[in-house]
Amino acid sequence: MTSRPLVIPGEVEEWSEWDKRHGRLCREGSCERVGRRTSQSLDSLEEKLITQQTRTSLDMTTKINFAFLVAILASVATAQESPNPVVSSTPEASPALSMSPEETITASPAPVQTPSALPARSVRVSFVPPPLEGMISLGIYDMTGKLVRVLHQEAQLNEFTIGADAMVTQWNGKNDAGEDLPAAKYRARGYLVGALKVEDVGVAADSPPQDIQGAIVKVKLMPNPLHNDKRSVIDITAGFDGEGSYLKTADGLPLFTVSESPNLARVMVAKDGEKSIQIWEDNGAGLHRFRISNVQKMMAFDCGELELK
Question: Do 146 and 259 belong to one domain?
Fold first, then answer.
């Protein structure tokens, strides 16, 4: 029998082609020999494949390690070239938490405790105005009858707040000097002064009566129908300040401006009939006289007691 060479499939040869050739050799009587050689060749091929796979795995591992090393080196180089510091994840290395001694935060001083201001005091004063055209003067009196505050002087009605059933104003609990008055009960009362007539008589040729100095005249007022009172009688005198002279009650509440003469040294009042009075003004250089008529055109009103807390 003529021997034929064993054909082992190459690494790239199709196994199906090798099977065809192997079957033909077996029919020709070389199958057993081919089988033994094939077994040996398969073992050799398996070892070769294992070796090649191992070598390929090592090559891939080497390439991966090399790429990883290159990436690390690139990161280090970038960090060295970058002007911005890399923020560390640890608190100790964080630049935001580190500061120079000049930047050290110092504790701010405690705020100075100032005494709190006293709460505002406000007392509601209400009244029903008498049925008469004119101006209103309103005062606050203590329980002994002493005038402690001129709340309004010759005020128009529109200077007050219109309440549900009365005219309303407010008192802050202070006297005329701006001082706080003690908590207590007080009383508010006033006068509505009608259309009084002022006549400038001129320079007085005659001297005033001898008993005119510090004189007080009594005036009968119009009755206030809202209070069902009788015709009140009040004591009136004259007063003056840097702006001129005026009529006032004996307890000091201003009622009506007589003149705006400056630099007065004194003023005097005298009775001049039932419905008029006379005022003498002395400025140091001479006397000037005024006659006020219709002095009875006034009505009194009372606001009642007030409680200042």
Answer: yes
Q: Do 31 and 165 have their domain in common? A: no
What phi and psi values does residue 2 have, to the nearest 5 degrees? -80, 125
Question: Alpha carbon of 120 to those of 116, 123, 132, 161, 308: distances in Å?
Answer: 12, 10, 35, 20, 12
Instruction: Read off the DSSP letter of residue 32.
Output: H
> Do 140 and 76 fall within a single domain?
no
Q: Is the dihedral of CA 234, 237, 238, 241 positive or negative?
A: negative
Per residue in 91-145, pLDDT (tens digit) is 444 444 445 544 454 555 665 555 555 567 899 999 999 999 999 999 999 999 9
Quick count: other Cβ atoms within 10 Å of Cβ 46? 10
- Among all chains, which residue has been given the structure tokens 């005062």? 139
Helix (H, G, I), strand (E, B) or coil at 25: helix
Range of the domain at 249: 123-308
Burial grade of 207 (CB within 10 A; 0-12, 13-18, 19 or more): exposed
Contacts of 49 (CB under 8 A, 6+ apart): none
Residues 132 and 73 in one domain: no
> Which helix or strand (DSSP H or E) is residue 84 part of?
none
Residue 171 β-bridge partners: 123
How many Å apart are CA 309 and CA 306, to the nearest integer? Answer: 10
- Final residue before a domain boundary, out of 61, 80, 99: 80
- Amino acid making up residue 238: A
Query: If phi over 0 gives left and psi between -120 and 50 gives alpha, with beta otherwise, what is residue 284?
Result: left
| pTM summary value | 0.61
Tell me the helix, strand and coil percentages in the chain, rounded to 5: 25, 35, 40
Question: How many angstroms separate the CA atoms of 290 and 258, rounded?
Answer: 8
Boundary residue ending a domain (28, 46, 80): 80
* CA-to-CA separations, 182 to 210, 238, 304, in angstroms, rounded: 42, 30, 19
Which ranges in the chain belong to alpha helices (H)? 15-27, 31-81
